Amino acid sequence: MKEVLVPFEDHRFGCAMCGECCCSRNIPLTLEDIKRISKYKDPKDFVVIFGERKLVLDRREWDSGCVFLRDGKCTIQEDKPLVCRLFPICVSDYPLTEEEGRKIELEDGTSAFVYVDTSCKGVGRGKSVDLNDIRRKALILRNEVFVTDLEGLIGWYLDYEEPEEKEEG
Ligand code: SF4
Ligand code: SF4
Predict the structure, then answer these.
(1) Residue 153 is assigned to a structural domain of this protein
(2) Is residue 21 part of a domain?
(3) 15 lies in which domain range?
(4) Quick check: 20 and 122 in contact, CB under 8 A?
């Protein structure tokens, strides 16, 4: 699935449950994402350092799928990374393509550019995407990204206690 970003224009979205977005992309993680998800797995089993310092979700070798994808479904739905919660919406502090994304104002008075990834089969189905929800998540994402770095992860991990293994079924 190759990303096709276009400026957001009140698109509709209803997930078609194809699972493709969980098998084809590097998902950036914030430190808060990692803390939330660490109740399911030890971070060393799902965090990968990408490039020099970026933290992303690990993917399986056999299908490039996210390590939390099972039978086409996300197994950490309630705590999935912010980037997954926003998808197929992508927000950025700067334009991501030659075409400027839709510029929106966030609650703190700053602005962000909003795109929709039209390679997602769910775009055009379902309900209109709520712009206020995008605003809210975009601000949380920016604040969490701002305080995410490798040193912070290591510092937190030193006190981390592995979750007890849950019995299946
Ligand atoms: S968000 Fe889009 S790509 Fe991902 S599973 Fe739903 S329809 Fe498929
Ligand atoms: S965390 Fe869930 S939604 Fe995000 S890529 Fe993994 S399986 Fe998909």
Answers:
(1) yes
(2) yes
(3) 5-157
(4) no
At 74-102, the pLDDT tens digits run 999 999 999 999 999 999 999 999 988 99
| Ligand with an atom nearest the CA of residue 118 | 1
Ligand 2 atom 2: the closest Cα is on which residue?
74
In terms of pTM, does the model score above 0.85? yes
DSSP secondary structure of 12-62: EE------GGGSS---B--HHHHHHHTTTS-GGGTEEEETTTEEEE-B-TT
Instruction: Tell me how far the alpha carbon of residue 21 lies from the centroid of ligand 1, in angstroms.
Output: 6
The bound ligand whose nearest atom lies closest to the alpha carbon of 1 is 1
Ligand 1 lined by 49 (C-beta under 6 Å): no
* pLDDT tens digits, 114-136: 999 999 999 999 999 999 999 99
Question: Number of folded domains in the chain?
Answer: 1
